[in-house]
Design goal:
Structural class: alpha+beta
Number of domains: 1
Bound molecules: zinc ion
Helix content: 25-40%
Order of helices and strands: EEEHEEEHH
Strand order of the largest sheet: 3-4-5-6
CATH topology: Folate-binding fold
Shape: globular
Distance between the termini: 58 Å
Strand content: 15-25%
CATH superfamily: Folate-binding superfamily
Oligomer: single chain
C-alpha cells in the first residue's frame, strides 16, 4: 500500500485516494479549432509508461482536493507531490513533463494560445489606459 502525502492533510493511506490518471492534459476550449482526430487524441489517448509518470490524484476520503504526483510506475516511489496547475520542481519529473509527446499536440498548442490571449488583452487595456492619461 502506498502512503501518499496529501499536500493539505499530510501522509495518508492509498485507500483514501482516487487516481485521476495522467496529469497535464490540456483541455481544448470551445474556441479551439482543432480537428476531430486531434480532439480524439485529447479525449482517448493516455500514456502508460514504465518508469516516471505524472498523475492526478484526489484525496477522496479526506479533503477531496486534487493534486499531482510524480510516481515511478515500477517501484511506486513517489518522487514529488505538487499542486494542480503547477509544474513539478524536481529535475527528473520536469524532464518527464517536457519529454511527453503531449507537449506537441494541437490541443496543447491551442490551450497555450488561449492562455496567452487574456495576457495580451490586459496589456492592450493597460496601453489604452496610458493613452487616456491614467496611471
Ligand atoms: Zn487531503
Amino acid at each position: 500500500m502506498l502512503i501518499i502525502n496529501c499536500p493539505y492533510c499530510g501522509p495518508r493511506e492509498e485507500s483514501e485516494f482516487a487516481c485521476g490518471g495522467e496529469a497535464h492534459i490540456a483541455r481544448p476550449l470551445a474556441e479551439n479549432s482543432i480537428s476531430d482526430a486531434e480532439f480524439a487524441d485529447y479525449l482517448f489517448l493516455r500514456d502508460n509508461p514504465k518508469g516516471l509518470f505524472l498523475e492526478r490524484w484526489r484525496h477522496s476520503a479526506g479533503c477531496r482536493r486534487w493534486f499531482n504526483i510524480a510516481r515511478d510506475t515500477v517501484s511506486h516511489e513517489i518522487i514529488e507531490v505538487y499542486p494542480m496547475g503547477a509544474l513539478p520542481r524536481k529535475k527528473d519529473a520536469l524532464a518527464t513533463h517536457a519529454a511527453s509527446w503531449r507537449r506537441d499536440t494541437a490541443a496543447e498548442k491551442a490551450a497555450e494560445r488561449a492562455a496567452q490571449k487574456p495576457a495580451r488583452q490586459k496589456a492592450a487595456a493597460k496601453k489604452a489606459d496610458g493613452k487616456r492619461g491614467g496611471k
